[in-house]
């Protein structure tokens, strides 16, 4: 059952530079880019190998299906990356969600309220070589990983766009990316919904992530007596793994449980 009374594995905000011992009691909430797989130059360059797919299948079996992908990607994109597998998932940082039963909310569609923002940011990337606009339908992400010299301009462009939108949108920062998304949804709100349902209800929730958008999930599960695992050094959790390769090794320890 979920641990109660006190947070596990840390004192104050001091992280342990490893991860907790594997347990069949876990309910896992896993970020993808920078956590399960290494970041690439562009989102389109990411490939999920068969070995990772097989590993996640084994982990899911050990945990009776309590493994969810919680990502900034859309659920549609997650399904394409992990094909033919379809895990419980939260997409667009919690804007959309698919439960373990397959029920969907916030299904992907093209948000017409972002039409002006699309035009403005498309014009920006066309005039700033190396920047990239990722259109997620209900969110827009401006990447400058390949052109860090344009970070200031990217911030100014996104700020101007957000000011022109209704109050229902805000900017979510990430690693070399600025994302315009609807207010009111976070990875934490999605995880809360998962925790009310089988097979996650009653388990120890474990969030693994590498970026600022994962922090809301960290704080939620810590308050519930669960476990937060930061990947790399950008965010702070109760525990830390150095990189996605270390995450995959830790997941292998769960897959190996008798």
Protein architecture, described:
It is a single chain. This protein is an alpha/beta fold. The chain contains seven helices and twelve strands. The chain has two domains: about 150 residues, Rossmann fold (3-Layer(aba) Sandwich); about 70 residues, Alpha-Beta Plaits (2-Layer Sandwich). It has an eight-stranded mixed β-sheet, sandwiched between helices. It has a four-stranded antiparallel β-sheet with strand order 6-7-9-8, covered by helices on one side. The longest helix has 14 residues. The protein is globular. It starts with about 25 loop residues before the first strand and ends with a helix. The N terminus is likely disordered.
Summary, kept brief:
This protein has helices at 50-62, 75-81, 115-127, 151-164, 187-195, 215-223, 244-255, and strands at 26-30, 67-70, 89-91, 96-98, 104-105, 132-135, 140-143, 169-174, 177-182, 204-209, 227-231, 239-241. The chain is built from 7 helices and 12 strands.
């Amino acid at each position: 059952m979920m641990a109660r009374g006190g947070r596990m594995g840390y004192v104050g905000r001091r992280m342990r530079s490893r991860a907790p011992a594997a347990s069949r009691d876990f309910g896992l909430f896993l970020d993808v880019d920078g956590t399960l797989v290494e970041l690439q130059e562009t989102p389109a360059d990411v490939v999920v190998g068969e070995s990772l797919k097989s590993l996640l299948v084994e982990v899911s079996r050990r945990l009776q299906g309590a493994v969810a992908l919680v990502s900034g990607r859309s659920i549609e994109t997650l399904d394409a990356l992990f094909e033919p597998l379809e895990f419980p998932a939260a997409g667009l940082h919690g804007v959309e969600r698919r439960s373990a039963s397959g029920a969907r909310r916030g299904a992907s569609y093209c948000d017409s309220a972002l039409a002006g923002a699309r035009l403005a940011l498309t014009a920006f990337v066309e005039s700033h070589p190396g920047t990239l606009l990722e259109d997620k339908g209900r969110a827009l992400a401006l990447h400058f990983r390949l052109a860090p010299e344009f970070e200031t301009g990217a911030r100014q462009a996104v700020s101007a766009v957000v000011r022109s939108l209704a109050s229902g949108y805000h900017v979510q920062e990430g690693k070399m990316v600025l994302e315009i998304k609807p207010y009111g949804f976070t990875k934490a709100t999605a995880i809360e919904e998962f925790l009310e349902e089988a097979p996650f209800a009653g388990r120890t929730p474990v969030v693994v992530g590498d970026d600022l958008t994962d922090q809301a999930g960290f704080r939620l599960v810590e308050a519930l007596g669960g476990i937060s695992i930061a990947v790399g050094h950008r965010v702070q959790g109760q525990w830390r793994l150095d990189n996605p390769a270390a995450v995959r090794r830790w997941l292998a320890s769960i897959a190996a449980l008798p």
